[in-house]
Amino acid sequence: MSVLVKIARVAGRPIPLRGNDIDTDRIIPARYLKAVTFDGLGAAAFYDERYDARGELKGHILDEPRFQAKGTRIAVVNKNFGCGSSREHAPQALLRWGIKALIGESFADIFFGNCVALGMPCATASEAEIARLLSAVEADPAQELIVDLDALRATYGALVVPIALPAGIRQQFLEGTWDATRVLLAAEPQIRATAARLPYVKRFGD
Amino acid sequence: MAKSLLDKVWEAHTVLQLPSGQTQLFVGLHLVHEVTSPQAFQMLRELDLPVLFPDRTVATVDHIIPTHTAARPFEDEQAETMMSEIERNTREFGITLYDRASGHQGIVHVIGPEMGLTQPGLTIACGDSHTSTHGAFGAIAFGIGTSQVRDVLASQCLAIEKPRIRRIEVDGALPPGVYAKDVILHIIRTLGVKGGVGYAYEYGGSTFDGMTMEERMTVCNMSIEGGARCGYVNPDQTTFDYLRGRPLAPQGADFERAVAWWKGMASDPGAAYDAVTRLDATRLTPVVTWGINPGQAIGIGERIPAVGEFADDERDVVEDAYAYMDWTPGTPIAGTRIDVAFIGSCTNGRISDLREAARVAQLGRVRPSVKAIVVPGSQEVARQAEAEGLPDVFRAAGFEWRLPGCSMCLAMNPDKLSGRQICASSSNRNFKGRQGSPSGRTLLMSPAMVAAAAIEGAVTDVRALLGRT
């Protein structure tokens, strides 16, 4: 049985990823999905935005010297981040690049759910607060961004940003029940009872 | 109290309320394909867990499968590995695999309906965002990621929050040459690509009432492009007529009992919605996307819009689209030269799509400068097309007729754009790099519009070709 991992607070250097509607095809192009494991996806995160046709770096923010830092990273994003394809390879690539949490104006539904399953909180903040946070991070990327799920605030130096997370999701992180498999399976008798009530499970036979 | 279909399906499939406040939701049908499942099966092995309901789980291969040859092993070693992996996983975990040898292989969202697996009132999940397609039957169907695929394999359940509902009411008959694809592109253009975040879309009104099941599937398929994880149409006689006699639909007296249950799952008159949008279908024209998301779309008679026409928070994406697509605002979309024409995908790879495209294809020949391919959505679609002589029509017009698969919709197989090529495509996403070239460009449109563009070598109004304007 997997151990419950409680996530109340994530702290690390920020990485700003500006732009609305950043789709998962951009986060990880489909050709990197041709594998039976998620290994090595970190290096391919945003590949086509980072490298030109000859494989030379194009100067994407992920590769800027001042945004290189070891350890945990926290992405700051705008609206509808992770839209499009359901590919979990997208958050897997970000996770393997080092991103353990995200703060943004809004997240696409499937991407958000995938992040929960990986223990990556996606917290939201208002447009104005995100704008302030992005500016602060870009002006001085060398501080630690702290995402506090318990207190529902993010702090970056002197800047304190109120954050939000659906109550149930927040509770899953705080209690360590975000890895759902065992939680769901614990209800096996109720699962079977639900199936038995559904007429299509018996193909509508008597 | 009057309830919506979403309310009823949610209630019927609720196993329990989790302490987190989420619903533990039973999944009536789990569809599996080769790209988003191998890690999930591996996680099950590591947890030493079986598949809880193997008979409610069905697999096929669509994303990586070549469409130019059926030969094994595949030339692409990575693709062959993925194919071998799903063969092994389905064998070891006791799951039906519809591969090419079965005669029922195809895009997962095409075969579910045609086999009769997709039915009203079900919850359906699949590791693919276009699972929303199945909502055409009055199912609550949505895409999930690989960890959730693992959860559904292990428990037949998901931990999930119930979405809000927006009712999208479209009325009026579609003008000739205007298709379901144009309706959904218009909806996404109107509500935006973020408009559906947190919502399910319920499609209603006389336009949807008058649509065939295949047209409804095209609409529901692209719900996710508007941000809505699922979209549905309430089941009606059209739905029941489509399902009657399908191989895995209930048969005989069971079918009649099924219809009674299905009817009961439809939204009640007076059901409450969190939001309502009303649109008029009678004024629609063919729609073409010009940008880098499916909401960046215009009518065939329109020009590339100026950045000033957009809300402040859309302008950066609009500028990005001009640069990527190489547009000058004010340019008419009609006349845009294309290099590739792609007819197929889970959006528009069904028999009625191919019939409409063939009707246009027989009016001319593909321009020599254009590479045009037709990829049927499934082996069943291919068989039906062959029985109707459609491949001959396409070949005579200069289109290539391929084997079923996802193909150039996402280019995980050998079908790809190269360099800055522009593709007129009947698929669902015009994201940067989507069709296999990091700088390739996609213009989404109906299959008939793609066929017309192939013949003209440029984006053109299919209504003119059909002599209908």
Report the major sheet of chain B: 5 strands, parallel
The CATH topology of chain A:
Aconitase, domain 4
The main sheet of chain A orders its strands as: 4-3-2-1-5-6-7
Our count of helices of chain A gives 8
- Taking pLDDT < 50 over at least 5 consecutive residues as the criterion, the unreliable ranges of chain A are none
In short:
Chain A has helices at residues 24-27, 47-50, 89-97, 109-117, 127-139, 167-175, 180-185, 188-197; strands spanning 9-17, 73-77, 99-104, 122-124, 145-148, 153-156, 159-162. Chain A is of the alpha/beta class.
Describe the secondary-structure layout.
The complex is a heterodimer of chains A (206) and B (469).
Chain A: E1 9-17, H1 24-27, H2 47-50, E2 73-77, H3 89-97, E3 99-104, H4 109-117, E4 122-124, H5 127-139, E5 145-148, E6 153-156, E7 159-162, H6 167-175, H7 180-185, H8 188-197
Parallel strand pairs in A: 1-2, 2-3, 3-4
Antiparallel strand pairs in A: 1-5, 5-6, 6-7
Chain B: H1 5-13, E1 14-17, E2 23-26, E3 29-32, H2 38-47, E4 57-60, H3 77-93, E5 96-98, H4 108-115, E6 123-126, E7 140-143, H5 146-155, E8 157-160, E9 164-171, H6 180-191, E10 199-204, H7 206-209, H8 213-221, E11 230-233, H9 237-243, H10 252-265, E12 275-280, E13 287-289, E14 297-299, H11 315-325, E15 340-343, H12 345-348, H13 351-361, E16 371-374, H14 379-387, H15 390-397, E17 400-401, E18 422-425, E19 441-444, H16 447-456, H17 462-465
Parallel strand pairs in B: 3-4, 3-6, 4-5, 6-7, 9-10, 9-12, 10-11, 15-16, 15-18, 16-17, 18-19
Antiparallel strand pairs in B: 1-2, 2-8, 13-14
